């Protein structure tokens, strides 16, 4: 099909997070300002410097049939659960090709993960060491592949237009959604299941992040550990789960009478080219991504009333993001209600862009910005309007919102959405 520039809309959402096993309970937790961070239990976590994490509120093993779950890494389990909810929420009742609503060749899957099947890899290595070669699962390779979540979601819905897995660390989920938008705009697909997933709560990743000084060590007060923009912030808290959206061309969605949440205006991309793990302190790369978004869409800064910030609760990263926002938006930043939902969910790495896109879409849908919790002493360098402690109503009329995601390696992805 020839290149087009079709309008892309969101017609379905799904999530399983530290706040709830679906999008509704997750949204309820966000609006209530509830933290999903808890102490890690078990002997294998006892010697770690970090003994807290934001575990999924509903274990995927309690949702999926055991024969299926045992063939999937935890990251793929989360992705499948979120995708099933989003697919049903969009009004689809069967895989593509079975009910006439979408042809398999016009359906894609783009589900990202920053780390992939790391728990499968580490657990099966333990099996190899402790029990021998013959006990290693024959499902190990399909489980540990980073593309496993997207592939399994594609198999679930019978997607044949393309199954893809962008990997850009903590920007992966957002980049997946941006890639899905381009699939629809260029005419390669009419519908794409897109989002991010992660399941890396294991002693090795936690020890590695802790030794990088990237994680909070506030083991005594787990629910207060993730504190974006607060002067006492000391790093992120690891979370797990998935967030998935159904994207469609507006024409396709209207033809089948679908409920539309909002329009996806587009994405802005850049790279810091500064350091493999540290953010560029002036926010130069972030600003470039935001400017790229404005230059490639019809979004005007005056339309933006809400932003779901990357805001991981690291000393440098939180301030660099605010500097970038002020540089690009100028005085228009003053009317942007900023939410840092990682204060409640923890940081889902490659899954962050997925669940934060769900949160951004719901914020527009309900015209309500979730609070940022644990900001007891706002950093004076944070020159912006942070929604603190209580949710805030958003204006009526046509409004827009932005979701920011950045990752190790200097990846910057900015997504924009607008009410219809």
Tell me about this structure.
The chain is α/β, with parallel strands linked by helices and 420 residues long. 32% of the residues lie in helices and 18% in strands. A ten-stranded mixed β-sheet has the order 5-4-6-7-1-8-14-13-9-10, sandwiched between helices. α11 links the parallel β9 and β10. α3 packs parallel to α6 and α10 runs parallel beside α11. The longest helix has 16 residues. The two termini are 27 Å apart.
Summarize, please:
With 420 residues, the protein is an alpha/beta fold. The protein has helices at 23-32, 66-69, 74-89, 118-131, 140-144, 148-157, 172-185, 203-211, 250-255, 284-296, 315-329, 342-345, 352-366, and strands spanning 8-16, 38-39, 52-53, 107-112, 162-164, 191-198, 241-249, 262-271, 304-308, 337-339, 368-369, 392-393, 400-407, 411-418. Helix content is 32%, strand content 18%.
User: Order of helices and strands, N to C?
Assistant: EHEEHHEHHHEHEHEHEHEHEHHEEEE
Q: Provide the gyration radius in Å.
A: 20 Å
Q: Overall pLDDT, averaged?
A: 97
| Secondary-structure-derived class | alpha/beta
Please state roughly what percent of the residues sit in beta strands, choosing from under 5%, 5-15%, 15-25%, 25-35%, 35-45% or over 45%.
Answer: 15-25%
Can you list the strand order of the major beta sheet? 5-4-6-7-1-8-14-13-9-10
Distance between the termini: 27 Å
Tell me, what's the shape?
Answer: globular
Helix content: 25-40%
Largest sheet: 10 strands, mixed
Helical run tally: 13
Tell me the number of strands: 14
Low-confidence stretches: none
């Amino acid at each position: 099909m020839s290149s087009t520039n079709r309008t892309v809309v969101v017609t379905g959402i799904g999530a399983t997070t530290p706040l709830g096993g679906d999008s509704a309970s997750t949204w309820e937790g966000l609006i209530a300002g509830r933290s999903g961070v808890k102490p890690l239990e078990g002997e294998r976590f006892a010697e770690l410097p970090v003994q807290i994490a934001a575990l999924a509120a509903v274990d995927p093993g309690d949702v999926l049939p055991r024969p299926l779950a045992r063939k999937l890494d935890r990251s793929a389990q989360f992705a499948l659960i979120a995708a099933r909810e989003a697919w049903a929420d969009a009004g689809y009742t069967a895989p593509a090709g079975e009910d006439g609503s979408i042809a398999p060749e016009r359906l894609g899957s783009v589900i990202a993960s920053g780390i992939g099947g790391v728990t499968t890899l580490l657990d099966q290595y333990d099996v190899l060491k402790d029990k021998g070669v013959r006990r290693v699962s024959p499902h190990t390779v399909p489980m540990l592949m980073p593309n496993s979540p997207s592939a399994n979601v594609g198999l679930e819905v019978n997607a044949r237009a393309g199954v893809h897995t962008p990997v850009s660390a903590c920007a992966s989920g957002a980049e997946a959604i941006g890639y899905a938008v381009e699939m629809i705009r260029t005419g390669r697909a009419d519908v794409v299941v897109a989002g991010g997933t992660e399941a890396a709560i294991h002693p090795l990743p936690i020890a590695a992040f802790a030794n990088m000084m990237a994680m909070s060590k506030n083991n005594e007060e787990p629910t207060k550990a993730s504190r974006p923009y607060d002067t006492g912030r000391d790093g992120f808290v690891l979370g797990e789960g998935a967030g998935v959206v159904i994207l469609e061309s507006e024409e396709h969605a209207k033809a089948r009478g679908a409920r539309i949440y909002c329009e996806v205006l587009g994405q802005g991309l850049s790279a810091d080219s500064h350091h493999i793990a540290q953010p560029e302190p002036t926010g130069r790369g972030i600003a470039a991504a935001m400017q790229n978004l404005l230059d490639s869409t019809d979004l005007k800064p005056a339309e933006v009333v809400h932003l779901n910030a990357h805001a991981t609760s690291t000393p440098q990263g939180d301030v660099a993001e605010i500097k970038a926002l002020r540089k690009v938006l100028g005085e228009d930043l003053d009317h942007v209600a900023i939410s840092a939902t990682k204060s409640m969910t923890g940081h889902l790495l490659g899954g962050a862009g997925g669940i934060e896109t769900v949160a951004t879409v719901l914020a527009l849908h309900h015209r309500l910005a979730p609070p940022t919790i644990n900001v007891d002493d706002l950093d004076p360098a944070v020159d912006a309007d942070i929604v603190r402690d209580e949710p805030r109503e958003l204006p009526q009329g046509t409004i827009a919102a932005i979701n920011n995601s950045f990752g190790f390696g200097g990846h910057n992805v900015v997504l924009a959405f607008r009410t219809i």
